[in-house]
Structure formats: structure tokens, C-alpha cells
Amino acid sequence: MRLGDHVLALDIGGTKLAAGVVSRAGDVRSFVRTPTNVEEGPDTVVKRLLDLGRDALAEAGHGPEEMAAVGIGCGGPLDPVSGRVQGPPGLPGWDDVPIVDLVSAAYDRPSFLENDATAAVLGEHRYGGWGDVRHMLYLTVSTGVGGGLILDGRLHRGAAGNGGEFGHVIIDWRGRVCGCGQRGCIEAYASGSSIARRAAEALATGEPSSMRGLPAVTAETVSTHAGQGDPLARRVWDETTAALGRAVAVMVNVVEPQLVILGGGVTRAGDALLLPVRHAALSQAMRPAGAAARVELSSHGDTVGVVGAAASAFRYLDDGEPQ
Amino acid sequence: MRLGDHVLALDIGGTKLAAGVVSRAGDVRSFVRTPTNVEEGPDTVVKRLLDLGRDALAEAGHGPEEMAAVGIGCGGPLDPVSGRVQGPPGLPGWDDVPIVDLVSAAYDRPSFLENDATAAVLGEHRYGGWGDVRHMLYLTVSTGVGGGLILDGRLHRGAAGNGGEFGHVIIDWRGRVCGCGQRGCIEAYASGSSIARRAAEALATGEPSSMRGLPAVTAETVSTHAGQGDPLARRVWDETTAALGRAVAVMVNVVEPQLVILGGGVTRAGDALLLPVRHAALSQAMRPAGAAARVELSSHGDTVGVVGAAASAFRYLDDGEPQ
Questions:
Q1: Element containing residue B17 per DSSP (H, E)
Q2: How much is the pLDDT for A162?
């Protein structure tokens, strides 16, 4: 193996940590995960992340010195230039964590930090097998909702450098209050936690449901029970996909991408998510924008975070882009 | 005057036609306007447009042969490559009008067709005096609502080539039905005709208002009476600016521009529109995107259409871009 052929990729999420060794061609040589216990605080979580990275290296049979770099994906806000995580909503207490310094010191390798949704769109663009796509939008539907944009074949960072805030596309300005304080953001309907919360609210009315009495109701519970025909779960799930479809239609109307990729934990529901979202989005987007766009699930499934962090690290290594 | 220093610019709107001679530096040498009587049909309206163009040439003291080209701005959908207008909602009966052929034949000059909102963002970027802005979003608030995007200093057309459909950013998915058939598009709240319609609906409830008994209530009537303290007009106007502010926040969240320009007839209300829209947009956009953006009125006011059509014609002349 030539030096420079592989990177260690770390993915810091509000519900799970992941690590993997990824080749320049996008092959995932190892992949390991562990839950994030955010209440443990950043020091302990970072320690677990570094251990997980060592596990990924061991599984791939490499030492850190064989890695060209370490790519780190994390929810924003963060500063890729200074390498600091700056208080993502999903990581309480991570107000100013110098993650690049910590990771560089632990493995003695150059390390790069990227917004996880920005990293994911880089991963899909570089390794998704989608062909030569000029304009691509990636929407992550996970603990939160975020995204990234490729325009004219290049990452679009926007003026503030932090990537698209797709979770805060407002679809109902008099609607549900979002974690950001505004009303009717798509994140208030379609994030994993919002789906679970809306189901819990519906159950609290006393309406019969096959979900009643379960120890915990998650987004996955809702999609499963909706698929089994439970009317309450069906209603919550249909509202979720309708909301997501509207938000995708809005984003298609604004940027007219060729391709919209949906990724993140909630998309594990597969066709039960993809088909209604695709239909709603493309039928509601204005023509010709709507007619020119495809809506697809991520090629990478659960590994999208590490593949993205790897794509981001290779991009930094090759382009030497300062931010 | 060197040949190539000036263009004739034509602006086809649903409520007015405009024409002007514009220099390469963006100076408007002449500017004439006339109402569009859409019920006259495309043949007659095109004839009036061509006459108006001759008036603009006469006022500037030039013959058509002295023009480097003719730039034409019109509401979409249209095809810049074939030069055909393809049924814009504001121009009933214009289902397939070969406007470029008609204009080229009339003046014997090369002619170029551009979406009016796309033209406007080119005009603001080239001639607005905004400095070196990488990412700029232009929102036209007129008979309809549309827009255009400059990303990384270049026009972003999107995959379908027709520019941003900003009028169909959905802010209230269970809200008012829009002309496009969807619910809750910003156009259903903030276009001139929607403002007038919402005022008429409010008046129909019998609520007292200083606007009652007027022969016609337009968007301008609403902003004027709102400024004079009429509660009904105030409510309609406040909903308009709140809706626009939300839509701008959404677009800022998606593309993170440095600058958002508001133009079009409704923006003649000036600060009564700008200040609440700016406040709503920047306070509701996510940080840091919101903190990095400015929201301003068009530098060109009523001439934005001809300045945009001129900028578009110079761009075609200089870049020879096929679409």
C-alpha cells in the first residue's frame, strides 16, 4: 500500500460515533460504530472516538502512520479552518472543542474537520457512482436535518462557509416550533427526534395504535408500524414524507439540481421514505426544474458519514484548500 | 460612439413594457414605458414593444444599426437558446412566441432573450455598484415573484436552465393556493396581485378600513394605507413582509448569499418593505448564514428590467454563451 492511498475517517454524530479506514477509490476497508453518550461530555466522547479510530485501524490491519490523513465529519456549527466544533445542537457542551488538534495529536497525522453534511455531499459526488453530475443536493435526515450542495461540480459553501442549512427550510410558518426557535422548519417534522415526538403527541391523545405500550417509540417504530397499517403511525409517517417532499420541492425550485440524495438514519426506511418523498417533491417542484431532477437514496447507507469524511480529507490533501 | 458600446434593451412584463438604450458601462441613455394590455394578445403587444424600442432609440438619438445587439427580458418559462417565450403565467396566450426572431427581423440586429429575473440579477451584479460579491440572490416582487442567482461570481442557471423559481418557495404548506396549483408559495402572499387579492378578501368581511370604497385596491394602495395607520391595510402589509422575510430566510439558509437584492414593482414601497423584510429574514435565517448576508433594494428601481436585459445582451456578446 502506498502512503497516501488511505485515510482514517471519523464521524461524530449526536447518537453514534463511527470510524473507518477508506481508500482513495472510496472503498471502506473497515467500519466500526458505537453509540454517542452525549451526557458524558466532550472529553469522554472524544476519548471514545479516538479509541474507535484505533479499532478501525486495527480492523483494517494498519497503523496510524500508514494513513495519509484523518478526516473528521461533525454536525455544525464548526470552523473548518481553526478545526473547532462550535456548539452543534446535537452535541450539548461542545461549545468550542479543538477537535483537529486533539485528533492530530492522538494519531500524529494531519487532520481535517468538515461539516458532516458537507462531507456527505462530497462523498456522494466523489464515490456515489452517480456519473458526471454538475448540480447535486444532499439532504441528511437524521437526529437533525442538514445538507450540502455541489454546484457546477464544486462544493458550494456559501458566504458564511458552513454549508446549506437545509433543516431550516420553513414549510409552515405558523407550524411547529423548531429547536432553532423558528416555526415550521422541516427539521421540526422530519428529523428522527421530531418524528418520535410527533408520534408521542399523537399517542398522548389516547387514540388506539399498535405502537401503544411500547417501551420507546422511535422514527423506525413509526415507519415500521405505518407499513403494518397502523392508522396513527401511518398519519405521522405520511406527514413526515409530505413535509420532506415539500422541502425538497422548495430546494429544487431554488437551486435546480440534477440530483437530490437523501441520506441519514431516517432513510433506513428505504422505499417507504423514498417513494412518497420523490413523488411529492417532483410533482410539486415547478417545471422545468422538477422535470430535470432525480431523487435517490444515498449509495452509502450507514457508512455515508465515514465515506464523506474520507472524501473531505482527500479533497484537502489534493486541493490544499484552506477552508 | 464605437459600435458595440450600446444595446437596445426591451423588458416585457405582464403589466408594463419598457425599453431603453443602455451603454456598456450600464448608463441608461433613454428609458420609455407603456402599459401591457395582455388582452390584446401577443401579436399586438409585440408590435407595441417594437414601437417602444424605436421610441427609446429616438430618445437616445440613435438608429438601430448603431446598437451592438438587442437584449430582451421576459417572464419565464422561455427558452433562451431557441429564443421563444413559452407561456409565462403573466402573459396569457404567449404559448410559443419566437420573440428573438421577431425582434431580430424588426431591427436587423442580433437579439438575445433572457428570463427577466435572471437578467435582473446579471444587471445588479454587473451594474449595481455592490462591489465584488461572490454569491448574490435577486428576488423580484412584482406581478409575480421570481429571482436569479449569482454563485461564485457567475450566473447559476440550474439543471433545467431556467433560473431559480423563487416565487414557489413554499412557506405555508397548508396555506393559500398559488397560481401554480400548490399551496403556500411566497407568490401567493407577496406578489402585487396577491397583496391586492388578500386586501380585497379582508375588505369583503365588512371590517372598517380607509381603503373601503376606493375604485381599485392595489399593492401600492395597501402599503400607503398601512403607512397611514389603517389596521386592515397594516395587517395585510405586515403579513406580506413577514411572508417575504420568511422566504428570504429560507433562501439564505439554502444558498448562503452575501447579498439579497429585492426589486420589482412592489419594492417601490421602499423602507416600508425593506426594513421589515430585512429584519425578518436576517433574524430568522440560521447563523452564521444570516449574519453574513445583507438585504437591500435594487439599485435600479424601475429601470432594473432594461438594465438587466442590457447586462444579459452584453454577456452574450462577450461570452458568446449558447444558453
A1: strand B16-23
A2: 62
Q: Are residues B229 and B141 in the same domain?
A: yes
Instruction: Report the alpha-carbon distance of residue B117 to residue A107 in Å, rounded.
Output: 52
The reply to whether A179 touches chain B by the CB within 8 Å rule is no
Q: How many CB atoms lie within 10 A of CB A308?
A: 35
Subunit contact A164:B286, Cβ cutoff 8 A: no
User: Cα distance from A9 to chain B (closest Cα, Å)?
Assistant: 26
In chain B, the N- to C-terminal Cα span, in Å, equals 29
Number of domains in chain A: 2
> How confident is the model over B239-269, as pLDDT tens digits?
999 999 999 999 999 999 999 999 988 999 9
Which residues on B lie below 8 Å from A257 (Cβ)? 158-159
B162 to chain A, closest Cα gap in Å: 7
Write down the pTM of the prediction. Answer: 0.87
**pLDDT on residue A323:** 43
Q: Which residues of B are less than 8 Å from A292 in CB distance? A: 158-160
- Cα distance from B309 to chain A (closest Cα, Å)? 22
Indicate whether B77 pLDDT > 90.
no
| Chain B closest-CA separation from residue A285 CA (Å) | 8
The span from the CA of A286 to the CA of B169, in Å, is 10
Domain that holds residue B50: 6-115+303-319
| A159/B292 Cβ within 8 A | yes
Question: Cell match 478545526: residue?
Answer: A83
The confidence score (pLDDT) of residue B27 equals 96
Chain B touched by A216 (CB under 8 Å):
no
Cell readout for A160 is 458564511
Specify the 3-state DSSP secondary structure of B222.
helix
Asked if B33 and B140 sit in the same domain, the reply is: no
Runs of H (alpha helix) within chain B = 41-60, 99-107, 116-127, 187-190, 192-204, 219-227, 231-255, 271-284, 289-292, 304-319
Q: Which CATH number covers residue A41?
A: 3.30.420.40
pLDDT at residue A179 is higher than 90: no
Number of other residues whose CB lies within 10 A of the CB of residue A50 = 18
Taking contacts as CB-CB distances below 8 angstroms, the residues of chain A near B174 are 172
Does a structural domain hold residue A77? yes
Collect contacts of A213-219 with beta carbons under 8 A, ≥24 apart.
A218/A192, A219/A192, A219/A193, A219/A195, A219/A265, A219/A266, A219/A269
The residue with cell 440530483 is: A259
Q: Which residues contact B131 (CB under 8 A, 6 or more apart)?
A: none
CA distances from A153 to A122, A137, A259, B201 (A): 10, 11, 12, 47
Question: Cell triple for residue B66?
Answer: 448603431
Q: Quick one: chain A helix, strand, coil %, rounded to 5?
A: 45, 20, 35
According to DSSP, the β-strands at A145-151 and A154-156 are antiparallel
- Report how many Cβ contacts below 8 Å link chain A to chain B: 159
Give residues with Cβ within 8 angstroms of A221, minimum separation 6.
A196, A199, A211, A214, A233
| Separation of alpha carbons B74 and B76, rounded Å | 6
One domain for residues B157 and B11: no
Contact B158 A135 (CB under 8 A): yes
β-pair partners for B263: B140
- Within 125-144 of B, beta carbons closer than 8 Å to A belong to 134-135
Rounded alpha-carbon distances, angstroms, from residue A273 to A239, A277, B156: 11, 6, 30
- CA separation for the pair A194, A186 (Å, rounded): 10
